[in-house]
């Protein structure tokens, strides 16, 4: 299947508009909707094209202003998919509107897990490593090469992701969803996502207690060593799972973040970390 | 005054540009510092500061809405101060990490207390199909978010390195250390947000498998991504096979083997 | 005589207490040596001996009924001798490993030739519902097992360090070395006993997977336990799914996926 | 499900008695029944409570004097399960008595593998590491802290394991057994157990041959190196499997142990090890 | 089942003949049939024994002259299997002749992957390591010990492999094939084979670019480092997959080999490697 | 002349014997060099050369039809030259790798342009049931293949070390290096040939899993073989179970568990 071959010229134009708008998705990032505002903004070209009725448009805009968060390079894939579903909806009377946001939310998690680790964890590190060397040698092109090198795959993935999402959407996603195969895909993506998030939890959340007990000047108990021998990275793991539990109990992200700051200061005051 | 303005501009271009241009990484020190250097007339110092800070902040990533530190503020200020001190980069290094940690806290405050309250407007505009309203709000929030943040380097440069240093020095060490500890823990919130999107009891076990691999094998993320992809594919193949068995228990599609009829679905799963 | 008595007591408390109090680890050198030291009036030397021997015997575990060595005998004697030599711990270190190996052989003999023959009585008591009989036998075997063993340190201290040393010296080196080799191999019997309880052709492959992971990745056991648990859970989830498919081939429970009806069974499997 | 909520007060008392008795399970350890005597001793409170008939009691005591071996902290879980089955048996006439020992033997292996590695291989090492430091600093609390630290989880696992076993037993185990789910559980536990035993075989069974051939003072053949390049730990693996084969051929454990001692001496005499 | 118990004495003789002939399988190795000539040569004893008709023999010989390639020690296993199928064919009129070569080709790949890695990658290295030490000490037995040590397992595997293949073939392979179990076996062997080939691709195909950029004498960009941080061994992987794509597009092996030589020289001329 | 003959003979015995005697490894330097040494009257030098070259060419394997280098030619010549220079092995070491690379290229040419065209004859002989023809062709191709190759060492020794060295020196360095690069890449062709026999979309993922394990864990092949075998067995067990479920969906053979009826098939799968 060649990418996008079954999309009309007009539709391609719409996808391209979405591609440019999706760039700004996180411009209005906020604790309530995250990229929701930007998502709605990106969907406007489609919404205006598919729906002639003001009420339909309002409904669609409301749908797409909801909480949304994924990694930018993969965002347009989801937008494309959603757009193709809006198209269906605009044509078929009995369409299950709920399924649009269901797909969006089931895809955004796995893609964020995978995308964040690849773009932040791998590719940015490669590019920065190169740029640091250039800058140290006094080369004024360092920042420019860094930006180009990082953004070419970033933009390409976002561009082709949009086309792929839209064309897959119109061809497959509906069908996959109908006969349950989407579950398999989502599960696979989630498994990969969870593995990556597990790995990142260990590599990105850092904690080392300085707690240790001495006697006659000899250290007799290094708490961090004990913790490490129980399970390396047990504290980052537990703290991440703790935050997750709080989120599930509907504690706001902001509260958790400030709680964490207080925790940090308390740990510091108690000379634990 | 000019200095303060251009450093603020460099920081604004960094943080605001990063988000406006699709996670473009403009806010990394390797970009912000040379830019500030350019505007201040000493790009070489900017490059050196950028290289040093990029290395220092290599581990600082921005996932979910939590991070370890906000490095662009530190990059802008460090460049300005280093240039003032005749290109001496080493003297400013000790203050960059505290600055970045502090920057993150201030950024979080704007995010929570300025952007948060505005967001509800999106829904009301949407309900009225007020597209102009949405667009304006979208970009207004963007501007105010990062413009407010840029005031910090503006005043910091205006008051000068000494004042900044004395402010930092006046923050008790134990608090500063606490902020650093918090900064190191903050990515946990990002992880938790990702977990909330991914978690389900049945597959939760994979979260731990990622953790144990990283903890005890210490592989680069790309290797874990490949291993994870292999696991996900093998599992999906089996799921697909079972799905088929169930829907068509007569058919002979069992072995997930070497040569069976490739129908459309399989095609999709490549 | 007092010394001999209290050292024997310390060893008895160690080995007998360990088994009476539910695998309480009383028989480890870190416990036996300070206890012997306390009774001999020099707890500090006991602590040092305990710390040294605990490190030496860290790898000595007691699984199934086989082990590498029996460390409490060595701990008791080393403490007594070290105290006699004015608290000099270093001079006794060379004899602790031979002692522990020899101790294990003697313990094995008691286990086999004393406890073994008595065990049959359990069945005859049970058949007559003679509960008193069972209880008495249970504790009598416990007492005789470890009391006999405690005679060894008793006589060893009575005769003194020189005699012990000369006994050890008189055992040909090649035999002593052979006992050490045997001690290092003995845990294989414990493994074999565990295998006998676990083995089944169909899952035997996992034994080898544990071996290959330990041999080539050299992970701590806890990491292997986590990996093993992950494997077991993933496998059980698939088994459960297949079980359901088979009993209710109509139902749509295939994907082991993200959201399906949690019934009681799933609940149990957490 | 809260632990033990559906157990009556009286039953809880029985479980607690069993908990204390199970502590001594290995007191009469011997090559014939291992912890069988102690198992019977621990079951007495239940047996006397459920069965009023002397013959029933004798039968139950005989059942529980059989060969039994598992790691102490997990023993009471199996006892609890067995107790709940004895209860069933005392009530239902057609109960399959054989199943009681079938469950016991199917659980004891996996739990021994898992428990031995966790309690002997992990937790004891952590506690000892700490106590060694304390003792080196001359702290007389070293042995006490060691014992408390090790035994708190040890006892807690044994305590709650007993309650869990008894309450699960009465509610679930029967059902699980009936519809075959117990097989899945047993298999999973056995897989984990086998992985641990495989790992322990490599880490605890030690063998290094000193055999090597030299010529003109230069070593030309280091047998251990050859063995390692074939498979690291191949000798421990083969010896463990050999012992296992012997056990399966009904060779007594004692004979094997003494055979091993002789083997060691022979290897030493032949200057192989 | 004891190996070969159900084979008649006469048949055993035939297998033994095949064993000796299979030794020379690659004598006439060539880019068109690889070991096809030798395969036919090895099958002659069976062909002449089973078929009395000249046309049948010719047909069989043609079958077995086709392209065939596997690792020598495992070759006779496949020959034995094929022989047992020829026997069936000579007896049963309706036998599906196609299946003979189908089995041959489905087995040769997995066995080559597994065998090459074990005999070339593991066992040869072990034997050579020992022989090098002997030779350094001036021991003239070095080459002889090397040859004996390597070839004893080599020949044993080939010998018993032949018997196993022939006896399994006549009893099982047909049946396995009929009820689809052969697919499972082939899949399992192929999975193992692919894992080994993947591993060998990384360990045996070597490429390191010397490309690097410097500025003011400082190296600012080491291309190999960048490649390694993307994926270790990415170039060997891509080149192997590239060759594979070419083979699938029916480009001849010879052409690819010479293309590779040219590629090497070009890379060298461009100072890339 | 005698020297040239015997070195050619040693190389012929190596390469031709390796293939005639069932991958007997006669072509390895550890065999060819001592053999050449023996025939030239200085077996000790042959041994030393053999040991050194075997180590140098340890990584050179022969899979599919591609390789890194052909070491027997280099082994034969190096022995001859080392003996001529009074047993000085070190001076010949620098030329052995270029020689082996060159040898491989020549061997490939014979393989392609001599053996290739002859192979078609096999089919025509087979069609006529001309068994003699096949046998003769089989051994003739063997002889010509390696006899032609043996001409190279023959002439090389005849013309002497100086000529060989000057030939090697006259090949531009960049070409020689290119041949080495090509030699290092050539095993890729062997891998591709194996892949062609093994590949199927559905299991392709395992190729990458082998690659990622080797790349990031750097295990010996034997460990990877054990891991791979474990994976293959576990997968086959599940496949078998599903196969059975499908053919007899009533039967209760689900759990692939601990104790089920062992029928013949299971028996086969051990
Ligand atoms: O995790 C998804 C997403 O979260 C956002 O808020 C940003 O920080 C992005 O960089 C990130 O990719
Ligand atoms: O393996 C089960 C069990 O065996 C016993 O005899 C004791 O050595 C215990 O410590 C061990 O847990
Ligand atoms: O890969 C299969 C096979 O290919 C051949 O041509 C030879 O090189 C053998 O050594 C090898 O085993």
Overview of this protein structure:
The complex is a heterohexamer, with 3 copies of chain A (273 residues) and 3 copies of chain B (270 residues). Chain A is mainly alpha-helical and 273 residues long. Chain A folds into 2 domains: 9-201, no CATH class; 206-269, no CATH class. Chain A is 74% helix and 3% strand. Chain A contains 10 helices and 2 strands; from the N terminus they run αααααααββααα. Chain A has helices spanning 9-22, 36-50, 54-65, 72-91, 98-136, 142-178, 181-204, 223-230, 234-248, 253-269; strands at residues 212-215, 218-222. In chain A, strands 1-2 form a two-stranded antiparallel sheet. In chain A, a hairpin with a 2-residue loop joins strand 1 (212-215) and strand 2 (218-222). Chain A is globular. Chain A starts with 8 loop residues before the first helix and ends with a helix. The relative contact order of chain A is 0.10. The model of chain A has no long low-confidence stretch (mean pLDDT 89). With 270 residues, chain B is mostly helical. Chain B has 2 domains: 2-190, no CATH class; 200-269, no CATH class. Chain B is built from 12 helices and 2 strands; from the N terminus they run H-H-H-E-E-H-H-H-H-H-H-H-H-H. Chain B has a two-stranded antiparallel sheet with strand order 1-2. In chain B, a hairpin with a 2-residue loop joins strand 1 and strand 2. The model of chain B is unreliable at 250-270 (pLDDT under 50). The chains are: A mainly alpha (273), B mainly alpha (270). The interface between A and B is large, with 125 and 115 residues. The complex binds alpha-D-mannopyranose (3 copies). One alpha-D-mannopyranose sits between chains D (26, 29, 69-71, 112, 116) and C (23, 62-65). One alpha-D-mannopyranose (MAN) sits between chains E (26, 29, 69-71, 112, 116) and F (23, 62-65). Chains A, D, E: InterPro entries: GatZ_KbaZ_carbometab (IPR050303), PTS_IID_man (IPR004704). Chains A, D, E: The chain crosses the membrane at residues 23-47, 125-150, 184-205, 253-272. Chains A, D, E: Keywords: Membrane, Transmembrane, Transmembrane helix. Chains A, D, E: It comes from Sporolactobacillus terrae. Chains A, D, E: This is PTS mannose transporter subunit IID.
């Amino acid at each position: 299947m060649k990418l996008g071959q079954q999309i009309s010229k007009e539709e391609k134009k719409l996808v391209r508009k979405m591609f440019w708008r999706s760039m700004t998705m996180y411009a209005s990032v906020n604790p309530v909707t995250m990229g929701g505002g930007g998502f709605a903004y990106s969907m406007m070209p489609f919404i205006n094209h598919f729906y002639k009725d003001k009420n339909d448009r309002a409904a669609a805009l409301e749908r797409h202003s909801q909480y949304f968060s994924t990694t930018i390079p993969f965002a347009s894939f989801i937008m494309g998919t959603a757009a193709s579903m809006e198209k269906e909806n605009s044509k078929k009377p009995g369409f299950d509107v709920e399924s649009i946001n269901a797909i969006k939310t089931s895809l955004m998690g796995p893609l964020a897990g995978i995308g964040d680790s690849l773009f932040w964890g791998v590719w940015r590190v490669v590019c920065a490593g190169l740029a640091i060397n250039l800058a140290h040698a006094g080369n004024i092109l360092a920042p420019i090469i860094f930006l180009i090198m990082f953004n070419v795959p970033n933009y390409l993935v976002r561009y082709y992701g949009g086309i792929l999402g839209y064309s897959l959407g119109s061809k497959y996603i509906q069908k996959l969803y109908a006969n349950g195969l989407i579950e398999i895909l989502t599960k696979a993506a989630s498994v990969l996502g969870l593995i990556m998030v597990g790995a990142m939890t260990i590599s990105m959340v850092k904690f080392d207690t300085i707690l240790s007990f001495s006697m006659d000047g000899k250290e007799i108990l290094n708490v961090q060593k004990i913790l490490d021998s129980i399970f390396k990275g047990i504290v980052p793991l537990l703290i991440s799972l703790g935050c997750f539990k709080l989120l599930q109990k509907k504690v706001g992200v902001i509260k958790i973040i400030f709680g964490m700051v207080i925790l940090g200061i308390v740990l510091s005051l108690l000379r634990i970390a | 005054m000019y200095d303060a303005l251009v450093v603020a501009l460099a920081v604004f271009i960094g943080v605001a540009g990063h988000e406006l241009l699709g996670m473009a990484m403009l806010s990394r020190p390797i970009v912000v510092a040379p830019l500030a250097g350019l505007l201040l007339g000493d790009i070489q110092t900017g490059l050196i500061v950028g290289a040093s800070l990029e290395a220092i902040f290599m581990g600082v990533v921005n996932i979910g809405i939590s991070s370890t530190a906000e490095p662009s503020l530190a990059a802008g200020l460090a460049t300005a101060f280093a240039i003032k001190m005749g290109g001496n980069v080493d003297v400013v290094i000790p203050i960059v990490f505290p600055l970045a940690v502090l920057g993150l806290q201030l950024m979080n405050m704007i995010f929570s207390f300025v952007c948060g309250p505005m967001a509800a407007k999106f829904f009301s505009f949407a309900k009225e199909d007020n597209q102009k309203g949405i667009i304006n709000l979208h970009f207004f929030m963007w501007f105010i978010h990062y413009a407010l943040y840029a005031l910090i380097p503006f005043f910091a440069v205006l008051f000068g390195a000494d004042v900044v240093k004395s402010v930092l020095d006046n923050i008790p060490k134990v608090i500063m250390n606490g902020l650093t500890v918090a900064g190191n823990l903050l990515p946990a919130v990002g992880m938790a947000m990702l977990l909330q999107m991914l978690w389900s009891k049945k597959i939760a076990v994979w979260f731990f498998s990622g953790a144990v691999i990283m903890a005890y094998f210490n592989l680069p993320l790309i290797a874990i991504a490949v291993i994870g992809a292999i696991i996900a594919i093998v599992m999906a193949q089996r799921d697909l096979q079972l799905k088929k068995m169930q829907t068509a228990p007569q058919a002979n599609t069992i072995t997930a083997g070497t040569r069976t009829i490739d129908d459309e679905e399989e095609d999709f799963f490549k």
